[in-house]
Specification:
The chain has 146 residues and is mostly beta strands. It contains 2 helices and 10 strands, in the order E-E-E-H-E-E-E-E-E-E-E-H. The protein has helices at residues 28-34, 133-141, and strands at residues 2-5, 12-15, 21-25, 39-45, 49-53, 58-64, 67-72, 78-83, 89-93, 105-109. The chain is globular.
Length: 146
């Protein structure tokens, strides 16, 4: 089991089972929401993700139509995002994890809008925006383990 928390510790969560995969996003919305040059996320089945403390401190912002970014209303830590089109999974911010999730980066998304000072290292696939859904589906069925 994995667990994590926001900066102030009010919001805590747990993940049962293994994450589907990990990816990095360089889009302007992720950069603005995190205050960082990119975000690293793990994809987790919705039924394997549970807020265990601080649900009353969880706030949400609709950053795109029917896509919500959930964060701590006290300290501002981004916790996860979820969209109507992908309600079967949540995208959990890896910076809030307390242990190694056991997977590594499968791909880089929205590299066409990455900050100019960022250099992407490694040989993982890079996509100018979201990868084709057929490409993403392969990560749901194969392991890119640690």
């Amino acid at each position: 089991m994995l667990n994590g928390a926001c900066l102030c510790g009010r919001i805590q969560y747990e993940i049962t089972g293994e994450p589907r995969f990990m990816y990095q996003c360089y889009c302007g919305k992720c950069r603005a929401a995190s205050g960082a040059s990119f975000v690293t996320n793990i994809i987790v089945d919705t039924d394997r993700f549970r807020i265990t403390a601080g649900k009353e401190s969880l706030a949400a912002f609709e950053s795109s139509p029917k896509k919500f970014r959930h964060f701590c209303s006290a300290c501002g830590s981004p916790i996860y995002s979820q969209g109507e089109k992908t309600k079967q999974v949540v995208s959990v911010r890896c910076g809030t994890l307390r242990q190694d999730p056991g997977v590594r980066i499968a791909y880089h998304a929205f590299v066409s809008s990455k900050a100019p000072w960022v250099d992407i290292c490694g040989d993982q696939p890079q996509f100018p925006d979201w990868p084709d859904p057929a490409v993403v589906r392969q990560f749901f069925t194969t392991s890119n383990g640690a």
